[in-house]
Amino acid sequence: MDRLLSLALLLLWSSSLCQGADRPNILWITSEDNSPYLGCYGDVQAQTPHLDRFSKQGVRYLNAFSSAPVCSAARSTLITGMNASTLGIHNHRSSVAVPGGVVYYPQVFREAGYYCTNNSKTDYNMSIKGKRASWRDVGWHESSGRAHYRNRRKDQPFFAVFNTTLSHEGQTTDKAYRGRMKENPPRRVVPPGEVILPPYHPDTPVIRENWSRYFDNLFLMDKWVGDKLRELEELGEADNTIVFYYADHGGALPRGKRNIHDSGSRVPLIIRFPEKWKHLAPGKPGETSDHLVAFVDFPATAVNLCGLEIPGIWEGRPFLGPGAQEREFVYLFRGRMDERYDTVRAIRTKEHLYVHNFSPHRPLGQAYTYPFRVLASMGSWYEAFRAGKCNDVQARFWKRKQAEELYLIKNDPFQIRNLAADKEHRDVFNGLRTKLWNEVMRTRDTGLIPEGMYARLSGSGTIYEFTQSEDYPADEVLTAASKAVRGDLGPEFSFIRKCAQHESPLIRYWGATGALMLGKEAAPLMDDLVDLLDDPVFDVRVVAAEALGHIGESAKILPVLVKVVNEGNVYESLAAANALEALGRDGAVPMATIKAVMPKKVRAEGARVVEALEKIR
User: Fold this and answer.
1) Which domain holds residue 204?
2) Quick check: 617 pLDDT over 50?
3) Residue 346 in contact with residue 436, Cβ under 8 Å?
4) For the domain that residue 598 is a member of, what is the CATH number?
5) Where residue 18 falls among pLDDT bands split at 50, 70, 90?
6) 353 found inside a domain
7) Contact 595/613 with Cβ under 8 angstroms?
């Protein structure tokens, strides 16, 4: 009965909107690389008066999450209304083909008569009809620094996005920061010596300086938001516009952006409803909501608020408007970041964070070229680690990860005390692991497929179509991947030996990964791994070669890895370059040897690996 009543109300709501052409405008104001470091969220270091005032006018969400902790994967999720991990567009950055049935939210609004503008970041990880997706492909009327809702026809409703990079990690460099000094407040928002550091950061002058600059940048970001809100008032549109403010993911200092913990995934979200549309609000102005929401839900919510039909292919659910639904948990994901591979999936409830690392041999603090270039704090932290000046919590960033993690949020807001092995929390741990497995299976997550295999497996279609078909052994792949990284390898490594003979390259890949997890203890598997060096699939060869490198077989593996770097597709080549660099960094193969064999000219992101190699002492 309740369901029928909700449906009837939705139909009545939609009908009245269509007849009266009376729909709210939607304005999304977005900032980059900032967790809820705002005064209205209780951050005592922040000076954000405009957002603090805006929070008193709207509803502030306490449990809002970017589905992925990096811009391109997060924005790809937003524009499609689907988890980027479902479509195979979760790796930062990439250009993966998506099927024709995908519906982009600007198209929905545009077809309903809305004027749709984006000012101006896109950053979509996909190609459409054989070319990289452009703003026109996804339905914007205009996407540029000039795009603005004031350019629409009179009385036409609008959906508009304005984005600022003022809080982006790149804005903490000397050049960028000094260039804006005249716009900064008369004194530092937080002088370096007064910064309250998170427990995972060592106390160095450089890290303190980076944090101080970041709070100055947040001050400028807040002023920019205030300008956008004032403009809406001056143009007479505030009374008919529902305004969202949110950040694209957490950040911006190391262990924020790119990391799936709250410091990388939790974002501020404030939504203001004018008097005319206050019946759609989840609370009164100035109140908070503890509902769990994720980016995958934003398009469905905006469409629902305007009385439009939510496309059936979308995975998100509306958290506002008729038939709004509350989540028990959100599903989070991360894949390759720039030139560095990693695969992580997580479940976040109000009380817990459960993380499954499918690449535990890669530390959180990989040698990413870009953050090392723009964040002085990244290099300072690494130098402190190398000098033995980090405590256990701070050093963990640069070390091998545990396969699974569990955190109790209220007691551990920074997620530094892993309870995965704690017997007292075993029931919660098992329950959340099951939820994660169910989400991987339900969405047919593409993340357990090496990026280099996409073209081989998808053929003339897309990787999404492959994983949604019966040809994809989803359950078998998930089981193999999880066993491999957790060390559940059976007596005498029977699991790995069985995988090595499997007909599917995906199972062979994860079997070889299980051997890689063992390090030197994989010696009894040498013959099995040597056989895999001739595997018809390059990604399998790469993982087998890296595993052999750790048991002293460098003479056999170097020609294999160099061949893949030179002859593989861009993603296979990148994986091989990463394997070579990791072997040298771990001391499994002399760094001088790695530098000698690594090609000097490597395509695309692989060149960054070569750049990182040259900097290793």
Assistant:
1) 2-327
2) no
3) yes
4) 1.25.10.10
5) very low
6) no
7) yes
Q: Look up the pTM and report it.
A: 0.95
> Can you read off the two tokens belonging to residue 274?
């004018």
Asked, for residue 398, whether it belongs to a domain, the answer is no
Quick check: 195 and 250 in contact, CB under 8 A? no
Residue ending a domain, among 287, 310, 327, is 327
Longest CA–CA span in the chain (Å) reads 75
Please, are residues 432 and 349 in contact by the beta-carbon 8 Å criterion? yes
Please name the residue that has the structure tokens 């997890």: 517
In this prediction, residues 17-28 reach a mean pLDDT of 74
Rounded Cα distance between 506 and 306, Å, is: 43
Q: How many residues does the chain have?
A: 617
Q: What is the pLDDT of residue 2?
A: 42
What is the model's pLDDT at position 16? 40
The amino acid occupying position 448 is L
Range in 169-183, 261-275, 470-484 with the lowest mean pLDDT? 169-183
| 387 found inside a domain | no
Paired with 29 in beta bridges are: 162, 245
Is the distance from CB of 6 to CB of 322 less than 8 angstroms?
yes
Spatial distance between the Cα atoms of 346 and 547, rounded to a whole number of angstroms: 26
- With beta carbons less than 8 A apart as the criterion, state whether 78 and 299 touch: yes
Look at residue 1 and tell me whether its pLDDT is greater than 50: no
119 phi and psi, to 5 degrees?
A: -130, 90
Residue 479 has pLDDT above 50, yes or no: yes
Last residue of a domain, one of 269, 303, 327: 327
Convert the pLDDT of each residue in 497-536 to its tens digit.
999 999 999 999 999 999 999 999 999 999 999 999 999 9
- Residue carrying structure tokens 């759609």: 280
At position 79, the amino acid (one-letter code) is I
Residue 131: exposure state from Cβ atoms within 10 A (0-12, 13-18, ≥19): exposed
Mean pLDDT of 151-170: 98
**Domains of the chain: total:** 2
Decide if 357 is inside a domain: no
Within 461-523, residue ranges assigned H as helices are: 463-467, 474-486, 494-500, 505-518
